[in-house]
Amino acid sequence: MKRIYVSEKWCLGCHLCEYYCAFANSGSDDMAKALMNRRINPRIQVEERSGISFAVSCRHCEEPLCVKSCITGALSSEGGLITIDKNRCVACHTCVLACPYGTIMPSDDGMMQKCELCLKNAIGEPACVKYCPNRAIIYEDSAAPAAAAQ
User: Using an 8 Å Cβ cutoff, are 5 and 145 in contact?
Assistant: First the structure.
């Protein structure tokens, strides 16, 4: 399965991945209207410490603790892609506590959200990858994460 990989060596810490993620999942076709004067809730977060930046998003774990911990079955894994059914989510935050990477967070409506690789939105491919200006974020098969290792 293809996954997102990030190289801290190339991450500029510009946070563009966060803005493109928020826009891609907003349902709007106008970035300014979708994001202007709003606090964004992207599904990818840039962590920064000691001069190093690193974008963090769902790893789509092979044995996802978030799916196992979900008390309503809102989280599921199919073909390695972990998704949330917002209609079943009760915002109990159990998945937030279970995720070892801290990549599940509340959305604007309070229900949980996580990276679903933009496969359900209009872009159809990870927006963070598509618009990363330094190509620090890549989307490739997990069996060969060669570009991330460079």
Answer: yes
CA pair distance 116, 21, nearest whole angstrom? 10
Residue type, 23: F
**This prediction's pTM:** 0.88
Written as six digits, the tokens of 127 are: 């927006």
* CA dist list (Å): 52 to 10, 43, 71, 116: 10, 20, 36, 25
Contact indicator for 2, 137 with CB cutoff of 8 Å: no
Instruction: Tell me the pLDDT tens digit for each residue of 12-42.
Output: 999 999 999 999 999 999 999 999 999 999 9
User: At residue 147, what are phi and psi to the nearest 5 degrees?
Assistant: -65, -35
Contact 4, 117 (CB under 8 A): yes
Q: Which tokens is 81 given?
A: 């892609």
55 contacts 44 by C-beta, under 8 angstroms? yes
Q: How far apart are CA 72 and CA 24, in angstroms?
A: 27
User: How far apart are the C-alpha atoms of 120 and 126, rounded to whole Å?
Assistant: 10
